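TA notes, week 10

Several of you asked for a full example with nothing omitted. So below is the full record: C-alpha cells for the whole chain, then the designed sequence directly under it. When grading your own attempts, check the secondary structure regions first.
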C-alpha cells in the first residue's frame, strides 16, 4: 500500500495476509529473475566535470534507472526470461492446437513471425514486451487460439482502440504505454465496463479480446500484464472466481485478474499464466479443436461460471 490508509480497511478479515517468509521469498524470486535490480551508482549518472556520463542501462541486465527515487533498486518492465518463457508456451500452445487439428507440423525455424517490424511501427507499438513478443513469436497455421478468441486481421491490428487517448491526454499518459489489443473476439463494451484505468476508460466502445494492459501503474511497470475482456458478464451464477479465488461480481473483465494482489498493487495476470491455462484446456480436451483452431465460440466462456468447470479457468500462480 502506498500509505497506511490508502486502500484497504486493515480490520477486514478477508485481507490476503501473507507469512513474512512468503513476502521475503517473493523479493528473492524477483531479484533472482532480474525483475528487481540493484544498480551501481554510475548507471544513468549524468556527466560531471572530469567524469563522463554513466551508461544508460546496466551492462549485465539491461535495466535502466527508475524515474522515481528508489535507489539503488529499479523494477524492470519485463526481463529476457519473461519473454523467452512466454515464447516457449506460445510455441507449445500452437503446436498442440495444430496437432489436434491434423495440420502437418512445419519447421519453426522457417516460419514467419507474427508481425513485421514495419507493421508494429504503423500500429504505434513502441519498443517493449509487446513489440518483442510479436516480432519473435511464430505465425501459427490456425486462426482461433481460444473459444471465440482469434488472431487479428492486419487492418484490425493496425486499428488499436486506445491510440487517440495518448494524443488527447499527452500529459496524463506520459511514460505509460497504451493497452494493446492482442487477440480479438466478437463484441464491444465500454472501456469503463472493461475496467481500464483513466484516461483510457473514457473510450466509449472497445473491442473485446485479450489486451496487454501494459502500464496500469507508472511506479510498478509490468508490460506482460493482461486483461481479458469478454462480451459476456460472468458472476451471475456465483461460481466464477478471480485468480485469488474471490467471487466475480458480474464483470466483463475480472476473469484471471486478482482482486487483491498481496505482493504488488494493481498487478494484472502475466500473459504466460493465461497462455498456460489455455494450453491446459486444449491438452485436457475441455476445449475442442477444428481446422480453424479452438472451436465452440465465445459462449464456451460461460463454463467459467458453472459449478463443474469454474476451476478450469484459474491460472496456477500469482506471478510477480
Amino acid at each position: 500500500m502506498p500509505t497506511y490508509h490508502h486502500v484497504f480497511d486493515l480490520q477486514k478479515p478477508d485481507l490476503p495476509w501473507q507469512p513474512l517468509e512468503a513476502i521475503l521469498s517473493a523479493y528473492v524470486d524477483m531479484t533472482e529473475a532480474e525483475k528487481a535490480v540493484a544498480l551501481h551508482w554510475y548507471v544513468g549518472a549524468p556527466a560531471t566535470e572530469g567524469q563522463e556520463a554513466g551508461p544508460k542501462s546496466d551492462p549485465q541486465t539491461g535495466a535502466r534507472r527508475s524515474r522515481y527515487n528508489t535507489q539503488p533498486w529499479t523494477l524492470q518492465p519485463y526481463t529476457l526470461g519473461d519473454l523467452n518463457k512466454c515464447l516457449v508456451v506460445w510455441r507449445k500452445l500452437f503446436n498442440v492446437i495444430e496437432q489436434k487439428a491434423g495440420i502437418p507440423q512445419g519447421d519453426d525455424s522457417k516460419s514467419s513471425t507474427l508481425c513485421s517490424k514495419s507493421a508494429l511501427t504503423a500500429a504505434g507499438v513502441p519498443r517493449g514486451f509487446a513489440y518483442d513478443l510479436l516480432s519473435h513469436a511464430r505465425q501459427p497455421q490456425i486462426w482461433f487460439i481460444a473459444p471465440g478468441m482469434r488472431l487479428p486481421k492486419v487492418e484490425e491490428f493496425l486499428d488499436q482502440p486506445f491510440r487517440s487517448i495518448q494524443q488527447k491526454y499527452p500529459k496524463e499518459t506520459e511514460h505509460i504505454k497504451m493497452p494493446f489489443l492482442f487477440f480479438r473476439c466478437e463484441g464491444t463494451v465500454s472501456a469503463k465496463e472493461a475496467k481500464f484505468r483513466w484516461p483510457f476508460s473514457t473510450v466509449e466502445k472497445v473491442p473485446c479480446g485479450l489486451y496487454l494492459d501494459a502500464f496500469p501503474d507508472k511506479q510498478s511497470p509490468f508490460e506482460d500484464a493482461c486483461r481479458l475482456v469478454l462480451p459476456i458478464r460472468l458472476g451471475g451464477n456465483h461460481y466464477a472466481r478471480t485468480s485469488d479465488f474471490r467471487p466475480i461480481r458480474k464483470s466483463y473483465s475480472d476473469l484471471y485478474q486478482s482482486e487483491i494482489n498481496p505482493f504488488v498493487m494493481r498487478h494484472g495476470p502475466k500473459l504466460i499464466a493465461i497462455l498456460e491455462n489455455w494450453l491446459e484446456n486444449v491438452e485436457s480436451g475441455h476445449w475442442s479443436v477444428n481446422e480453424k483452431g479452438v472451436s465452440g465460440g465465445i459462449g464456451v466462456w460461460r463454463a467459467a461460471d458453472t459449478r463443474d468447470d469454474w476451476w478450469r479457468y484459474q491460472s496456477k500462480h500469482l506471478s510477480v
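Residues 77-313 form one domain. Use that as a sanity check on your answer.
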